[in-house]
Amino acid sequence: xxxxxxxxxxxxxxxxxxxxxxxxxxxxxxxxxxxxxxxxxxxxxxxxxxxxxxxxxxxxxxxxxxxxxxxxxxxxxxxxxxxxxxxxxxxxxxxxxxxxxxxxxxxxxxxxxxxxxxxxxxxxxxxxxxxxxxxxxxxxxxxxxxxxxxxxxxxxxxxxxxxxxxxxxxxxxxxxxxxxxxxxxxxxxxxxxxxxxxxxxxxxxxxxxxxxxxxxxxxxxxxxxxxxxxxxxxxxxxxx
Length: 240
Hints:
Layout lengths: L1 H10 L1 H9 L3 H12 L3 E5 L5 H10 L7 E5 L6 H13 L4 E4 L5 H8 L8 H22 L4 E3 L16 E4 L2 E4 L7 H10 L49
Parallel strand pairs: 1-2, 1-4, 2-3, 4-6
Antiparallel strand pairs: 5-6
């Protein structure tokens, strides 16, 4: 039954995107849960704005909790690990941590510090090893058909072209917050008394790994502060 539904949605992506366009984020999350049941999951980085989507999942009050996958590269800042622990406790989340089969030390021994070469191909290798493969292994383990994330259209040029529902690496990717602005995020966090990421106070508007994140500057803001300005995407949300 799920397989037939998945085939139907892939065939009618335009129709479903039109339907999702008129829903609020909580409605979009409910849509994914109702359509795919235990084959639906969300991903989180426990980054600057991650609390919003996680709080929305918590507020749905579902009898059966949605799977939450945390892609932990092993290189996150200490502040992110502490922030994750707080949100997990505050929101009573059941989180599955997804990590690379290669430890950081083993990866560096085999390939070196891939983020230091200033080569896009080395960053692609890094992201494949530490983010994309762990995510795909987790999705495959639970036979996840559709996964949701907190990406927003204003974050990168690529995300500005995204739809609410698309096919990424043969699975459906759902974006409940796609049309939300920074103001929407700010007011939601304020209204729901959500804690800010510790690095936000230090000037970070986007944070990932410690070696590839920096605070906003005069000329660089948001995703432009990531990966040394070489690229904006880590590959999780793209097909290439």
